[in-house]
Amino acid sequence: MSEEVRALHRDAQMSAQKVRLIVDAVRGLPVSRALAVLELSPKKAARIVEKVLKSAIANAEQNNDLDVDHLIVSTASVDEGQTLKRFRPKGMGRMRKRFHRRSHVLIAVRQVS
């Protein structure tokens, strides 16, 4: 078993719940199939995960001399980041809270024989 090569995107401007839907679809897949799934997905989170996956693939190829054809997505996780709290004026002098949620996306790939 070879080592895992990781890529991390911190403070992606999307809630972790939305990104987890996409990450769950690509976990455990070969990277070629995972990229195909992400390219066909219409969700904005798929663009974020696709960038992180391509970065992990490039890290594996450039830094660790791994073969891209034998890579799989071994670990894919999404954690909550910092939440920005904002307020909007509403009727009759009231205010409503709005939360701008952020997330951290971690993808690791490893080579299988």
Properties at a glance:
single chain; 113 residues; alpha+beta; Ribosomal Protein L22, Chain A; 3-stranded antiparallel β-sheet; 37% helix; 35% strand
Overview of this protein structure:
- The protein is α+β, with helices and mostly antiparallel strands.
- The protein contains three helices and five strands; from the N terminus they run βαααββββ.
- The protein has helices at 16-26, 31-40, 44-64, and strands at residues 5-12, 71-80, 84-89, 95-100, 103-111.
- The strands form two sheets. The protein has a three-stranded antiparallel β-sheet with strand order 1-5-2.
- Helix 1 (16-26) crosses helix 3 (44-64) and helix 2 (31-40) runs antiparallel to helix 3 (44-64).
- It is elongated and about 65 Å long.
- The chain starts with a strand and ends with a strand.
Biggest sheet strand line-up: 1-5-2
C-alpha Rg (nearest Å): 17 Å
Unreliable parts: none
The CATH topology name reads: Ribosomal Protein L22, Chain A
3D shape: elongated
Tally of individual helices: 3
**Domains, number:** 1
Structural class: alpha+beta
CATH superfamily: Ribosomal protein L22/L17
Characterize the biggest β-sheet.
3 strands, antiparallel
Q: What is the typical, i.e. mean, pLDDT? A: 95
N-to-C series of helices and strands: EHHHEEEE
Number of strands: 5
Distance separating the two termini: 8 Å
CATH architecture: Alpha-Beta Complex
What is the percent of helical residues?
A: 25-40%
Query: What's the CATH first level?
Result: Alpha Beta
Query: What percent of residues are in strands?
Result: 25-35%
